[in-house]
Design a protein that fits this description.
By secondary structure, the protein is α/β, with parallel strands linked by helices. The protein is built from 11 helices and 12 strands. Strands 1, 2, 3, 4, 5, 8, 9, 10, 11 and 12 form a 10-stranded mixed beta sheet that branches. A two-stranded antiparallel sheet has the order 6-7. The protein is globular and about 70 Å long. The two termini are about 40 Å apart. Bound molecules: ligand PBG. Ligand PBG binds next to helix 6.
């Protein structure tokens, strides 16, 4: 049927009609809010390249997490910034490390919230790489043992889910075994399955104080020219026991999300990363875009591409807007 019999504009006439036929919707419940935990008490410092995002001590994390829960957000993703960094990232698996303490606080005071922890060495190592260095490179097989130890310590502290973001081979399987052997067989793993070596992580590295001190992460994170390789990575993680698979970053990788959606039935998360957030904030501040509208358009596009869950620094403001428009 063609014009003039068929006129697509008929169903675009007003907001109610447009709402009725909308194919995609986002909800606060599908957003995961990433947060940066620092040691101590009463600490709260804004990340300069990420307006509205703070590095804060556990007491302040609890306050914001409780607020997130009230806004309908189901889950937060925690990154730790340790007191001290060393060669083997030992604060990462210390039962009294910055993350482990924060998780314990959250489980007491932000009841019901799903607390996910990032499992990676780069925030904890003095060299800033995501693993143990041997002869100048990150040693895969030694690193995954450390990652398993770290994941287990998060589980013991009370984490509801662990999220390995290191991109070592075989790490999901080793983490799954460590959890299962210690009574955590029902703790899910959200694997950063297709994580690209991306320059969009710049602001995060400022926040987490984790830029690599030599070289880059291209020896373990994926090459942005590849999509079929992402399917292989995801298949491997599912094989090893991943419960949720992730694609990261999101915005320049919508085709990867779509391809994964078509190939796999597992829940898919997409990480709307720091650089994507900062660009929106910067352009908004310059008055070049309508920040709130652009934010919603971006989040909706990630959902439309096929993501079930979106990890985003916009979570709080998006949830506020979504709650308001529902009334
Ligand atoms: C740690 C990690 C990074 C991000 C999440 N986990 C940084 C990196 O790999 O360099 C980036 C998140 C973001 O940019 O928002 N491995």
């Amino acid at each position: 049927m063609y014009f003039p019999a068929y006129r697509p504009r008929r169903l675009r006439k007003n907001e109610r009609l447009r709402d009725m036929i909308a194919e995609t919707s986002i909800s606060a419940g599908g957003l995961i809010y990433p947060m940066f935990v620092t040691p101590g008490k009463g600490q709260k410092e804004e990340v300069s390249s990420m307006p509205g995002i703070y590095k804060q001590s556990a007491d302040n994390i609890v306050k914001e997490a409780v607020e997130a829960g009230k806004l309908g957000i189901n889950s937060i993703l925690l990154f730790g910034i340790p007191e001290k960094k060393d060669e083997t990232g030992s604060e990462g698996y210390d039962p009294n490390g910055v993350i482990q303490k924060a998780v314990r606080e959250l489980k007491k005071k932000a009841k019901g919230l799903v607390v996910i922890t990032d499992v990676c060495m780069c925030e904890y190592t003095s060299h800033g790489h995501c693993g143990i260095i041997k002869q100048g490179v990150v040693d895969n097989d030694e690193t995954i043992e450390y990652l398993a130890k770290m994941a287990l310590s998060h589980a013991e502290a009370g984490a509801d889910m662990v999220a390995p973001s290191d991109m070592m081979d075989g790490r999901v399987g080793v983490i799954r075994d460590a959890l299962d052997d210690n009574g955590f067989e029902s703790l899910p793993i959200m694997a950063y399955s297709a994580k690209y070596a991306s320059s969009f992580y710049g602001p995060f590295r400022e926040a987490a104080e984790s830029p690599p001190q030599f070289g880059d992460r291209k020896g373990y994170q994926m090459d942005h020219r590849n999509v079929r390789e992402a399917m292989r990575e995801i298949a491997l993680d599912i094989e090893e026991g991943a419960d949720i698979v992730m694609i990261k970053p999101a915005l320049s990788y919508l085709d990867v999300i779509r391809a994964a959606r078509e190939e796999f039935d597992h829940p898919i998360a997409a990480y709307n990363v720091s650089g994507e957030y900062s660009m929106v904030k910067a352009a908004g501040r310059m008055g070049w875009i309508d920040e709130a509208e652009v934010m919603m358009e971006i989040l909706t596009s990630i959902k439309r591409a096929g993501a079930d869950l979106i990890i985003t620094y916009h979570a709080m403001e998006a949830a506020r807007l979504l709650n308001r428009s529902r009334k």
